[in-house]
Design goal:
Distance between the termini: 97 Å
Number of helices: 1
Number of strands: 13
Strand content: 35-45%
Radius of gyration: 20 Å
Helix content: under 10%
Keywords: Membrane, Transmembrane, Transmembrane helix
GO biological process, one term: regulation of postsynaptic membrane neurotransmitter receptor levels
Organism: Gulo gulo (Wolverine)
Structural class: mainly beta
Largest sheet: 6 strands, mixed
Strand order of the largest sheet: 8-9-3-2-1-13
Order of helices and strands: EEEEEEEEEEEEEH
CATH architecture: Sandwich
Pfam family, one: DOMON
CATH class: Mainly Beta
Protein name: DOMON domain-containing protein
Number of domains: 1
């Protein structure tokens, strides 16, 4: 005659704040100029919390979003953290190591305080990871500076597949977790008229049209 106890409510995923970018956390945005964590093709933030680094990732995908820590901006021999949307609707944080062009899942996962959500065809997650870890070739020390590799793509039954674009973006220089910047990288659709050559071509064409043909 007694009612069954109800499950405790699950805290909703707190939206990623971009107003803090460049102030209390570092951010990378890839996509349309002025985009935020909910509209960029890819978004990443990082900040120090005690002995941990908190990462926030989001991408326009129904599969996975990841960040890799590399010594040379090239895929291969990299420590990778990925947020993967599985068939049950959950977002799981997984640890990978790039062997050449192939990502091998590593059972030793340094992530903690994990949370993730799949909404509006976006995978978004948040997790912490220790700054210092015991020596292991698959897990880097984050107190050192690394190039950051940004990638996202589809998943099949919770397993990641090839990233969405052939040449995923990377940080232009090594990243220090102790330095907070807000860096924007235009996606391919917004790079067409941003190069010096294209700007020079536009100026020349405009001058030609104004002067007229002989």
């Amino acid at each position: 005659g007694y009612p069954f106890p109800t499950a405790p409510p699950v805290d909703p995923f707190a939206k990623i704040k971009v107003d803090d970018c460049g102030k209390t956390k570092g951010c990378f945005r890839y996509g349309k100029p002025g985009c935020n964590a909910e509209t960029c093709d890819y978004f990443l933030s990082y900040r120090m919390i005690g002995a941990d680094v908190e990462f926030e990732l989001s991408a326009d995908t129904d599969g996975w979003v990841a960040v890799g820590f590399s010594s040379d901006k090239k895929m291969g021999g990299d420590d990778v953290m990925a947020c993967v949307h599985d068939d049950n609707g959950r977002v799981r944080i997984q640890h990978f190591y790039n062997v050449g062009q192939w990502a091998k899942e590593i059972q030793r996962n340094p992530a903690r305080d994990e949370e993730g959500v799949f909404e509006n065809n976006r995978v978004t997650c948040r997790f912490k990871r220790p700054v210092n870890v015991p020596r292991d070739e698959t897990i880097v020390d984050l107190h050192l500076s690394w190039y950051y590799l940004f990638a996202w793509g589809p998943a099949i039954q919770g397993s990641i597949t090839r990233h969405d674009i052939d040449s995923p973006p990377t940080s232009e220089r090594v990243v220090s977790i102790y330095k907070y910047e807000d860096i924007f990288m235009p996606s391919a659709a917004y790079q067409t008229f941003s190069s010096p050559f294209c700007l020079l071509l536009i100026v020349a064409l405009t001058f030609y049209l104004l002067m007229g043909t002989p």
